[in-house]
Amino acid sequence: xxxxxxxxxxxxxxxxxxxxxxxxxxxxxxxxxxxxxxxxxxxxxxxxxxxxxxxxxxxxxxxxxxxxxxxxxxxxxxxxxxxxxxxxxxxxxxxxxxxxxxxxxxxxxxxxxxxxxxxxxxxxxxxxxxxxxxxxxxxxxxxxxxxxxxxxxxxxxxxxxxxxxxxx
Length: 168
Hints:
Blueprint: E1 3-7, H1 13-22, E2 30-33, E3 45-53, E4 56-57, H2 59-65, E5 72-79, H3 86-99, E6 104-112, H4 117-125, H5 136-145, H6 151-167
Parallel strand pairs: 1-2, 1-3, 3-5, 5-6
Antiparallel strand pairs: 3-4
Helix pairs in contact: 1-6
């Protein structure tokens, strides 16, 4: 069984999760940044990591997802919001919809990750009544996200993806 772990990472969050997942996979599994654009047809299982951008996988990940047909796919992502929030749930659903029904999504994982400081700066400059304007709640969420992904997040991701080895 040939497994590819590929990821798009803006601040290093998703890369950290990808590397953690790789640790529990068979030794011949391959990990590459999504920019390497490796041919998906060579693999039995593809694990795709992304950072959430506007409620869905980022553009680089979406471009790679377009190339995948007839595969077993696992998805994992990082975002500044809480992963169990409605935004987090919808981000996974929207990303899965890009893959299905032409592929079988066999696992999914989402965790918080530190937010790009440039994005936080942009939020600070927005008017308070803007949907993304900085609020105390958003500031707290960004503060919470700044310590993620942590070891617990990596262990949770490993547990999710360890199951695919048994089931596939």
